[in-house]
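Appendix C reproduces, verbatim, an entry submitted by the partner laboratory led by Prof. M.T., so that reviewers can inspect both the input and the predicted structure.
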Amino acid sequence: MRAAYDRGMEPAGWFVLGIVAVAIILLVTEKVSMDVVGLGIIVVLCLGRVLEPEEAMSGFANTALVTVGLLFVLSEGLIRTGAVNWLAARLIGLAGQNEARLFAVTMLAVASLSAFINNTPVVVLFVPILLAVCEKRHLAPSKVLMPVCFATTLGGTITLIGTSTNLAVNAWLEKNGGEIGLSRFEMFDFTAFGAIYCAAGLLYLFFIGRRLLPDRQTVATSLGTGRHKEYLTEIRIPAGSRFTGRPVDEALKGRQGLRLLQLIRGEEIHWPPFGDRALAEGDLLLVKGDVSGVLDLQRAPGIETPPERVTPDFQARAKTFTLAELVVTPNSRLVGRTLEEAEFHRETGCHVLALQRHGAHLREKITGLVLSVGDLLLVQGEPETIRKLRGSAYYLLLEGVEEHAINKRQAPVAAGVFFLVVALASVRLHASLDIVVLAMAGTVVLLATRTVSMRQAYQSVHWPILVLIAGMIALSQGMRKTGVETQIAGLVAQVFGPYGPHWVLLGVILATSVLTELINNTAAALLMVPLAARIAAELGANPVGFVVGVVFGASACFATPFGYQTNAFIYGPGGYRFVDFLRVGVPLDVLLVVLSTLLIPVFWPL
């Protein structure tokens, strides 16, 4: 290997490195969707004659990739039948009125569920439930959603099927693991260390992390459950207004039945309490109130109602329309498309009044904006139209979902099938009882018993991540075939080898964690795992510990909203800002990276 390193990089190797660089840039900037990146990698590797078509396409036939897709369907069975809803409601009920107990019970519950169910549907399920709890107990969602979201990621490290990242690394092992003496991971190979890893993260979130979070209300909770009785409007502070320079709260002083929810200044959003903050020309205020209050506000001196927010028939329709908030889900077909392209109004019968993204309140030309995971849409429609949106796989209605379950009679079937799949895959009584075969059999049972419809099954699968996995598998083959792995591994071994394998392991875990904060964590793992194994071989160390380091490094993705799709999903409903993720996530990442470096060699000696 050292000889190959000394010869220098071949032109084909530089070509592959260029593909790696472009793929990372595209994933970081989100200029194109992850599935387009995955397909693009395959196409360029073929056109560049780095791989033959059969080699480049082999990722689509990988059993681990198929397993990831099937597990999405099995999880959907538990969600669609209300099996997880029932369990979640009972667990949250155990917390009573004690806020600390609510945190502890909820985080333990979602971490346990995420050890066996993909954490994306777990977060999608718990967000509306927790928003309802926050409203009833007068808690700020910003104090709850991030710890719960992070707990699902931590729980996913406990078993092989807890996250698609684990399965993607397993896919690499099944193809290349013979060289390092490990052809695959079993169901509970990660459990001993994963439980410690998860427990350390949960303890940090409970005792430290939640205290670092802001106490910030959002529109999602401020709307309340009586949306059919109260309405939202925006008012603007025009030039020369008598309110300019005066405290924000004075804009509604003396007006009964109206409540100020947000101050919108440019693209920045400010929540109550506003304190001594003064109003400025051009400020927009989001106000909630009854029909008479909203109509009276439009005629008040010193403020204006933007004409596009109030139609001539507002008064006539005030008793029939309602407002609601929708969050774009990770599986949504809206991701990467505009509202016009998705024909949102024609399909839903609702008008989008505003869009909230990453702490910015966007109002202009929103129909032409390309939608992303976690975008929060403020929509207006008839009550019956809004109710029909409940249960959609494309967006999450932030109201009443905690009471909504489909096909409850089939809950025992969904739960029984999932339990049998996990149990049989764990004991491995026969070679034919592989996880992919069992997952496929379970999916057939769910479809045959109509526990899940074929349409729901297709909608439940996060296709972009599967395509990206296939593309990254092809890229890994290209790096291997052109000697890129050997070159990078040789350089790392030459520079860091004298410090010993433990320090190199720290570098691998840290590099994976940093990379996963910038791009999808599965993509980061698939980029790093062949390099980690090759680096270990250069050092003469046991490669298994380095591969495990990549697995857990890829799960240390808490410092940005982009490291994991569930982080992006809670951005809007939690009313978070980028700095909130940094404040809570960076210490957690550091804790987990150090813990992994110290304990992985104990479980998998180097």
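Residues 1-6, 225-229, 307-319, 400-405 have pLDDT under 50 and may be disordered. Additional entries are available on request from the coordinating office.
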